[in-house]
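Hi support team,

I submitted a single chain yesterday and got back a structure, but I'm not sure I'm reading the token output correctly. Could someone confirm the output below corresponds to the sequence I sent? I've pasted both exactly as they appear in my results page.

Thanks,
R.
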Amino acid sequence: MRGMQRMSNFKKPAIYHALRQINERRAAPVAEPRIAHFAASVLKSAAPVPHADAASSSSSVPAGLRVGDSEPAPWYQQAYFDSIGCTQSDFAAFVSSLLKPNSVITPFDGEAYTKARTQQYPIQQMDIKPAMVIFCHDTQDVINAVNFANKKSTLKIVPRSGRHSTAGFSNLEKGMVIDVSAMKGSFIDPVTQTGLFEAGVNFDAFNRDIALHGLNTTGGGCPSVGLAGFTLGGGYGFTSRKFGMACDNFIEAQVVTADGELIVANDASHPDLMFALRGGTGGNFGIVTKMKMQLYPIGMVYGVQFIYWIRSQADVEKGAMVWDLYQKRFAGPNNTDPDITVQAVLAHLIPDGQTMDDPAVTAVVILGFVTDDEAGGRRRMSPFLDLPFKPDETHEHYGTYSENNYGLLDNLEGIVPMTAGEYKMSAMAKKAFTI
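Hi R., thanks for writing in. Yes, this is the structure output for that exact sequence:
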């Protein structure tokens, strides 16, 4: 049994660092898509609402890919344009209208296309092949993409930000994926305690920016999750009991409608749309390009993990007692203390000192997150220590919101089976298992 211990930093499993390296490689610039060269050469004028500086960034067309070759390269055969219901000239005009070159990725772009349609983690992958992925860099790019899809082609549209949709909702077979992950602007107003964020901001950047002002609002437990998808889906986190769901703190949206109209929705302007956007509806009512969020002051917080290994029938009975205490004191309406959030997880972990080749061991894990000082945090979590038995392992940390928000989960070297449908940086199953 391991006693209470103070940890300056939660230990991160090796798989965490491996995934981070993968993510960094994915973020690297991809090879220039050839379809963009083709589009630039087909038409050099009459682009729909072009950016003033878009034309200045065009590059030369490689030999063998120029329009007028006796044998056109197969990647721009007319069959492709027929399949998406557009003309080559309309497609070229659309590509030329985007802020940056090489923003359009098609199935003919090889590895760039594979990367563009890939979800965040391997277990999420579904063999969905969109007709194209548009990497938008500002709101005008989004408007141009929507107008092209709805007025110049037969393409259906889906928006994407963080690539964390385990159900595959941020990808679309034979459709257009409008990716806003490059739109990462943010502005924090510490006086009104609000923040304005572009839809590509993820929680790594979000929490870093608001923490500079000592502010917080409900966020995701994984840094690469996108603010937009998380909030539009509802958004539950460790501070939800104190501040509400993320959608409760979503107070204004800049939205591109299906007609390509840019509107601002809040409780005074387009209130029905704002109501519809607040949780559970995803991108059904338009593409949100900017979000205004309500923020709140927050100080240091206390986080703790209690791990109870289940290796015998006696351990099963102990685990049931832990779970019963959680349900009666800390779950749902039974917890009336807004400063404490407790999560109970039936986990399958690799114990310290063992390797990935060793079998996973079942455990009941209690995660406690308390917006109080260290003594107050321990006092609020003390009912678990008042049971007739102690946790097999206790990990505690008093620090910033981000340290505990990520650390409480990162320190778990696996809490869900690989077959559950999602790898998470914060909850990686190290070994497949069966029950």
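A quick pointer for reading it: The chain has 13 helices and 15 strands. Let us know if anything else looks off.

Best,
Support desk
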